[in-house]
Amino acid sequence: MADEEFELDLDDLTRRMDGAMASLRTEFASLRTGRASASMLEPIMVEAYGQRTPINQVGTVNVPEPRMVTINVWDKSMVGKVEKAIRESGLGINPQLNGTIIMLPIPELNEERRRELGRVAAQYAESARVAVRNVRRDGMDQVKKAKSSISEDDQKYWESEVQDLTDKYIKSVDAALESKQEEIMQV
């Protein structure tokens, strides 16, 4: 069906759309839903030794109980910087110090905070949709550039392949958002 001269790299487009989905899953993991999770600290970076470093590379992150996260900071001089990074992260958690251990009690979410988290999740999903659409645009541009070397039927075939791939990933973003919003609104 496809001309030998032009072969769109659907694997590359798929890989790039998978990247958008992986990014969305990471952002969703950072949204707290009232349960403690070590992954909620993943996006937080600490200014350590002259560079931005993930928290899990300056201390051990544990979840000793369902509503508590602890960080055992390895270097005493880093405790203040880790605490500052958590306060400025926008997670809405107030760190408590106990020597080199930083305790993060996870408060119950009220209705207003749940709605706010739902809106943040929707923004993350929209960013993922935009990323998927950008990959789609790149694929369509590749097909258009090859217009002179492929038949009109082949052009339509490749355009529909790119569109089908895009539709699949947009559905998957929407499903992930719906699932995350249900999790957030669960009391």
Automatic annotation (TrEMBL):
State the Gene Ontology BP annotations.
cytoplasmic translational termination
Keyword Oxidoreductase among UniProt keywords:
no
Places the protein is found: Cytoplasm
InterPro entries linked: Ribosome_recyc_fac, Ribosome_recyc_fac_dom, RRF_sf
Q: Does the record carry Cytoplasm as a key word? A: yes
Q: Which UniProt keywords apply?
A: Cytoplasm, Protein biosynthesis
Name the Gene Ontology molecular function terms of this record.
ribosomal large subunit binding
Q: Which GO terms describe its cellular component?
A: cytosol
Superkingdom field? Bacteria
Residue ranges of the Ribosome recycling factor domain? 24-185
Q: Which CDD domains match?
A: RRF (cd00520)
What role does it play? Responsible for the release of ribosomes from messenger RNA at the termination of protein biosynthesis. May increase the efficiency of translation by recycling ribosomes from one round of translation to another.
What family is this protein classified in? Belongs to the RRF family.
List the NCBIfam families.
Answer: frr
The name this protein goes by in its record: Ribosome-recycling factor
Protein's organism: Donghicola tyrosinivorans
Q: Which gene encodes it?
A: frr
